[in-house]
Design a protein that fits this description.
- The protein has about 80 residues and is an all-alpha fold.
- Helices cover about 55% and strands about 0% of the residues.
- The chain starts with 12 loop residues before the first helix and ends with a helix.
């Protein structure tokens, strides 16, 4: 929705009501306590972070890096 106003005109009553309504909605939205974070989702509720096998992923990344270095040095 848009309102066209010429430069020399002041804000209309409708424009004032719209801006007041938008300000009120913004204040209500800012006051909400419920944040929608990924950590709060039901999907992640019973999952655990990687802890026992994190060394394995580190080893795979190091081996991949060494393989890339060997491929580019030999070729």
């Amino acid at each position: 929705m848009g309102i066209l106003v010429e430069k020399d005109e002041e804000r209309s009553k409708l424009g004032n009501r719209i801006s007041a309504d938008l300000r009120e909605r913004a204040e209500k939205t800012a006051q909400r306590d419920d944040h929608d974070f990924v950590e709060d989702s039901e999907y992640l509720k019973h999952m655990q972070k990687t802890n026992r096998f994190s060394w394995f992923w580190f080893l795979l990344i190091v081996l991949a890096a060494i393989s890339l270095v060997i491929i580019f040095v030999i070729h």
